[in-house]
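Late entry, written up from scratch paper. The run itself happened at the end of the previous shift, but nothing got recorded in the book at the time, so transcribing now.
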Amino acid sequence: MNAGRLRSIIWKEFIQMRRDRATLGLMLGIPVMQLTLFGYAIRQDVRNLPTVVYDASRTQESRELVQQFGATGNFRITREVASYEQALRRVDAGQAHAAIIIPDDYARDLKRGRPAQVQVLVDASDPTASQSAIGAAQLVGQRGNLRLTAQRFGTAFQPGRLPLDVRVRPLYNPALKSVLFIVPGIIGMILSNLLIIMTAMAVVRERESGTLEQLIVTPLTRTEIMLGKIAPYVLVGLVQLTAVLLVGHWLFKVPIRGSLLLIYAVSLLFVVASLGLGLFISTLVTRQAQAIQTSFFFLLPNVLLSGFMFPREAMPAAAAWVGLILPLTHFLIIIRGIVLKGVGLAELWPQTLALVGFSALFITFSTLRFHKQME
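Output as recorded:
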């Protein structure tokens, strides 16, 4: 081995690396992004779950109980509702992750020495987020029993019966099976990641192979070229959706409680949005390697900030806001709502409208950007 020749080739590689600024930026930027996201935005301890209260008792005792739930730090009381049905509807729609139900005879039962029952509804579709809420609700019941027993020691409470009966009802996923939460999320991840990468290389591949110039001189408009490029991938995305739904249902016993037609309709919007984003990336770069590198800057936040792996309720406000500009965030809410909760468009229209906006925005940006490169 000749040291001089080896030193020359090493120096040549450093020069090549310096010239390829995109790759160098990727090598330096990805670790920084990962450290920032994992250290700042990704947290497992879920606190301040949005919670609604249905207080049919409306007494001093019931208000004190609500304050005890809020004092745990796990429940953030957002509003009071007028009925049990309204409380359940808000949990269905994802506007609340827990609901505290206090019956009208709560204070009367406490004063008469009878067990006072309280129900806590918890959205258990995400087992990680729900476990802390379930534990906190049970802790409120235990503390309440200790306090009430100490206050009324030797009075009318029957032996062996606790004064406060807090019953937690996990909704949608009573057994807290993580697979029921993960499989619908995998649908979004597969559609998003694969379609973005495939279409990110679409225009670049045409340019490298020399066929882009042939398309430019045809009578096709730029809009027709863009739509024509994503059309085959739309079918690929729907086939992928069908495969994951079938495997998830038959192999992992994931129920499909909502409308199958609605799943396909909303998934079509998400597929178009993902393809539009990938197509927009392809108009920003000139080589396939650059297209893949640029895609990673979208895929990493896609995985970490969308709610696929980590509860969005535990993220800081800044990270949660960044997650809202990702189409996957809205699609996961929709697909989990339809599959696990059985809700429909009446509850999921904000997220559906967001997907419509993303689809139109990305396709428009891609078309305009492609026009610039043609010039």
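The chain has 15 helices and five strands.
(Scratch paper discarded after transcription.)
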